[in-house]
Amino acid sequence: MPSYKAPIRDLQFVFHELHQADQTLGSLPGFDEVSPDLVDAILEEGGKICEELLHPLNQSGDQEGCRFEDGKVTTPKGFREAYRTFIEGGWPSLAADPDLGGQGLPETISFMLEEMLCSANVSFSLYPGLTRGAINALSHHASDELKQQYLPKMVEGVWSGTMCLTEPHCGTDLGLVRTRAVPNDDGSYAISGTKIFITGGEHDLTENIIHLVLARLPDAPEGVRGISLFLVPRQLPDADNDPGEQNGVSCGSIEHKMGIKASSTCVMNFDSAKGFLVGPENKGLACMFTMMNAERLAIGMQGLGLGEVAYQNAVEYARERLQSRAATGVKAPDKAADPLLVHPDVRRMLLTTRAYNEAARALAVWTAINIDLAHRHPEPEKRQEADDFVALITPIIKAFFSDYGYETTTLCQQVYGGHGYIREWGMEQFVRDARIAQIYEGTNGIQAMDLVRRKLFIEDGRLPQRFFALLDGFVAGHAADETLAIYITPLAEANKLLQELTDWLVTASRDNPDQLGAAATDYLRIFALTTFAWMWARMAITALARVADDDSGFYRTKLRTASFFMGRLLPQIEGLARGVRSGADLMMAFDESEF
Ligand SMILES: Cc1cc2nc3c(=O)[nH]c(=O)nc-3n(C[C@H](O)[C@H](O)[C@H](O)COP(=O)(O)OP(=O)(O)OC[C@H]3O[C@@H](n4cnc5c(N)ncnc54)[C@H](O)[C@@H]3O)c2cc1C
């Protein structure tokens, strides 16, 4: 059975030392109580919950899965009790508004918990995760009356939330939504239609389930401009605001799927269900994007979380499993063979995983700090700057973290050889669980399109220009220091390549819009690797300043991992860039009949 140890030391390094988040966050209004001790205590306690309560249910949850009977869904053994402990500990409400019963802590702390939850039990993490997203959307767009009625119970975790977008004929293209909303006399709406693949659509963890549903009003325009957002409770709240009369919402079935088997994925039928408009008519997609953007970041964390737990187990295995002798001579003469860890190819797999994980953790926390800045910085210009960074990086985190998460869980499975393919060891579950993150919440192809078609072009390229200015400034600020050249030179080259490629792409797309779609996935990967190089350069600088006084070896290992990333992983961008420049015609010249 696999094990999990929360990476507290590395989270502390990233939060306190690398990003110096205590100062940045502590100076924001409402966060005066955030102190290093408080952050460490939350990380320690959160880590314990993940290690001792949630991870032990991960493998059994996968084997048992969710059960569907008579319209009801039963989660695997132990999930109900674990969920109760989780909400009693206040874990879902860390960053929620204190006026609604939340703890008002920075999003950054909630992000760090999210990584640990995803490592420990990604299926479990989805139940509170979707609820958090729904709270976010309702807080921004619902009427005060709806907020007062629904949010406190959702923040407490006794009611959960869902996101109902997908229909049998429409996933990516939400302009095709057919679910109807007909006004009732009392100001509510009758919602009718079928939604599929709804995560947490039905389950036994909470007293009530609050669905956020995209639907069309009778006279709505065609396409995405005619979609509205509705709150549709499974049970309508009674006079005491307890779950009362059953609404016209039912679960038709659950899906049997490749991974995340302890997360219920439901067909949801709405049959004249009573719903309440959230936000303005026909602006539902924009309102739903508040939830979707937060979810996209959370899905990226699944790649990191699974990469981390897979790495930890693969390292242990590589230490213990004895096969062959090292090429440079026997390393364990008292044993029948040397441990796997002596072989360069095994190290390649482990270090690839580690180098991605640690850069991803640094970038995730940096992004979360920017979310807090965007919400709370007193200066509007600083809020906008932070918001621009988050908007630019969101598709990159969603797509690249989940792509590399699938790659690295597979690499770590490979470290186990044949045993990695056997269920008992747990590695194949990490691979299966990682796969969905590349697909849901907008496929990774669609994330790449969001980057190249939208984010590059907002206000004449303001988002990438701000990002490039940040990197240019960082590189220029450290260029004179020769001790940093092994980190700064590759970053400077990557930054130059990315900027040139961006110019090429924007220009090429003027003549041929297909250039964007043809480039998108590889361009996103180049962007992500360059951003990781920036994180590694920053981590190396932080580690260099401390390595001389360090007996633990922590900073020395950081520096070596930084060199591994720059030398072995970053050069991928050169081949990818050549591919991008080869242009769209290589694909689009084919006749449809040739496929
Ligand atoms: C386990 C699971 C849980 C889910 N949870 C939820 C949930 O809670 N709520 C919810 O609403 N949905 C949920 N989904 C649905 C999920 O978000 C969609 O499956 C996903 O967005 C893709 O939509 P689709 O399956 O219809 O694929 P399609 O839209 O049919 O896409 C098929 C392929 O075509 C590509 N493609 C489509 N359009 C374009 C384009 N314009 N340009 C380039 N490529 C394109 C896609 O990238 C993809 O590779 C879930 C799905 C699963 C499997």
Give your account of this protein's structure.
With 595 residues, this protein is α+β, with helices and mostly antiparallel strands. Among the domains are: 8-141, Butyryl-Coa Dehydrogenase, subunit A, domain 1; 159-284, Butyryl-CoA Dehydrogenase, subunit A, domain 2; 453-589. The protein is built from 18 helices and 11 strands. It has helices at residues 8-18, 21-26, 36-54, 58-64, 79-88, 107-141, 144-156, 284-320, 344-376, 380-415, 427-435, 444-455, 462-478, 485-511, 514-544, 554-569, 572-581, 585-588; strands at 67-69, 72-74, 159-164, 180-183, 189-199, 208-215, 228-233, 235-237, 243-246, 249-254, 265-278. Strands 3, 4, 5, 6, 7, 10 and 11 form a 7-stranded mixed beta sheet that branches. Strands 1-2 form a two-stranded antiparallel ribbon. A two-stranded antiparallel ribbon has the order 8-9. A hairpin with a 5-residue loop joins strand 8 (235-237) and strand 9. It is globular, with a radius of gyration of 24 Å. The two termini are 44 Å apart. The structure holds flavin-adenine dinucleotide (FAD).
List the SSEs and their pairings.
Blueprint: H1 8-18, H2 21-26, H3 36-54, H4 58-64, E1 67-69, E2 72-74, H5 79-88, H6 107-141, H7 144-156, E3 159-164, E4 180-183, E5 189-199, E6 208-215, E7 228-233, E8 235-237, E9 243-246, E10 249-254, E11 265-278, H8 284-320, H9 344-376, H10 380-415, H11 427-435, H12 444-455, H13 462-478, H14 485-511, H15 514-544, H16 554-569, H17 572-581, H18 585-588
Parallel strand pairs: 3-6
Antiparallel strand pairs: 1-2, 4-5, 5-11, 6-7, 7-11, 8-9, 10-11
Helix pairs in contact: 1-3, 1-9, 3-6, 6-7, 6-8, 6-9, 8-9, 8-10, 8-11, 9-10, 9-15, 9-16, 10-11, 10-12, 10-13, 10-15, 12-15, 13-14, 14-15, 14-16, 14-17, 15-16, 15-17
The protein binds flavin-adenine dinucleotide (FAD).
